[in-house]
Amino acid sequence: MHIVMMIIGALAAVGALIWRIQMAAHAAREVGDLAKTAANLPRRLAFRKKSGKRGSRLVEDPREAAVILMLEVARAAGEISREQKDKINDIIVDQFHFTAEDAAELMVQASWVVQDEAGTDALLRRMVKLIRSKVSETELIDLDCMLNEVSRAEQSPTPAQMDIIMSFRQITGIRT
Questions:
Q1: pTM metric for this prediction
Q2: What is the sign of the dihedral through the CA atoms of 130, 136, 141 and 145?
Q3: Cα–Cα–Cα angle for 15, 16, 20, rounded to 5 degrees
């Protein structure tokens, strides 16, 4: 009987030790999440400052405007596909030097900001004018190539996608 009691006691001790290790791991995750929140605080405060604005008027960064244009090109073919999202994510990582996680976050934010204006000519013009005012002509040509890459993510570009790209070229004055 005393052997059974020792085994139960040992199992209880092992169980308590495992439970304590799990609690320590949970606490470490909480501290990690807190550190991420603190690291993102400047961006959140900047967003609060802009929150008096609505929709595409929140966008001031030409990279975010470029992502919005890429999403518009993808959306012109219908529902945005996984291939198109992956292509846009790859472009953000390669061209803008974001991490994959930050690129995905930027896509979600850009999509959310313009959800009410998606597919409108006013959105396209506002984003192109913002980009044109803040980047060089070489970067505009690079963006034209990015838009073409997105339009070819699944198959050949649709007429609606080519219309957006042609509008971009017309507003910026790019000749390709």
A1: 0.69
A2: negative
A3: 115
